[in-house]
Specification:
326 residues; Rossmann fold; globular
């Protein structure tokens, strides 16, 4: 097995930082928000040992990857183009793509739009969903006192100012609050949820607990790695993904009705914050209508949103079994 290596590749007109390990069929690992390539630290060596070439990029706007200035440079078409660019830079015809959170949304759309380049897709927590009938920002709830986090993220500079005031505390709060350790998730049960309603006056972070100790899967060293990455990059790139939700709907309209026609696997945890969103369980239950080759869903008890970090052994086994079955 080769050792973990880092380098920059030219892909889709930008420089993308990748971490890579192993030799064999390519597996592309796509992180979410607020994560970096480092969220796959438990997968890279294990998948490499299993006989795969594993590549975990920093998505555009994150970590060591370029951060285009214009907000409209962060659409799903750009992200899928980045992944195709990575395959081209690595001179690889096809890959299995795996993603969590925003990385899962990216993975689904890579599978949807380029089945010629991706032979399998694994999504963690975020299911495949149809584009909404109206712009998403018109669907999200808001009151005079609060608004859904996705709306809070729309104003450039607002969430950045809050998150970048104390980056270490931001990462500590966000990772804990969306983890299984924060407790069960039920619709409107009052459990502090970073991906719920945000106070217009106090912001997103204030009600989230500052845990006295880190979750078992996150060490102080891990927290430092994340903190240093976001001090260097800021949060703007990741937040810009949310600022393109309406634009994504417009750009992808010509693909409405298209199905994901490659083998697929979906994993989630019983304590994922997404399950508290009204209608999400029904979307997951009906996902096979959009993904005909979907394998049986894997649900991990007491697991939260950072599934590949919280339950690496189960996730690694699922990834390896799925790829070996292709």
């Amino acid at each position: 097995m080769t050792s973990l290596k880092h380098r920059l590749v030219e892909a889709n007109g930008i420089q993308i930082h990748i971490a890579e390990q192993g030799e064999g069929p390519l597996v592309l690992l796509c992180h979410g928000f607020p994560e970096t390539w480092y969220s796959w630290r438990y997968q890279l060596p294990v998948l490499a040992q299993a006989g795969f070439r594993v590549v975990a990029p920093d998505l555009r706007g994150y970590g060591g990857t370029d951060r285009p200035e214009a907000i409209d440079q962060y659409t799903l078409l750009h992200l899928v183009g980045d992944m195709i660019g990575i395959l081209d830079a690595l001179e690889t015809e096809s890959a299995v793509i795996v993603g969590n959170d925003w990385g899962a949304t990216l993975a689904w759309h890579a599978a949807l739009l380029r089945p010629d380049r991706f032979r399998g897709v694994i999504a963690l927590n975020v299911p495949m969903m149809e584009q909404p009938p109206i712009p998403p920002t018109k669907l999200f709830p808001q009151t005079k006192d609060a608004l859904l986090y996705t709306l809070y993220f729309q104003t450039p500079g607002l969430a950045e100012g809050e998150f970048e005031h104390d980056v270490c505390l931001t990462i500590r709060k966000l990772l804990f609050a969306a983890s299984g350790e924060a407790g069960p998730r039920h619709e409107n049960d009052g459990t502090p949820n970073p991906f719920g309603m945000v106070s217009r006056t106090s912001g997103l972070l204030a009600p989230l607990p500052n845990p006295p100790s880190l979750p078992y899967w996150l060490t102080e060293t891990d927290l430092t790695v994340y903190t240093e990455a976001f001090i260097a990059s800021g949060f703007r790139g990741g937040l810009n993904l949310y600022r393109n939700l309406d634009r994504n709907r417009e750009l992808l309209a010509c693909f409405n009705g298209l199905k994901v026609m490659i083998p697929a696997l979906y994993l989630t945890g019983t304590r994922d914050v997404g399950l508290s969103i009204p209608g999400m369980k029904e979307i997951i239950a009906d996902m096979a209508s959009l993904v005909p080759m979907l394998r049986p869903t894997i649900i991990l008890p007491d697991c939260g949103h950072w599934i590949q970090q919280e339950r690496p052994q189960e996730v690694n086994s699922a990834i390896i079994s799925f790829i070996q079955s292709l």
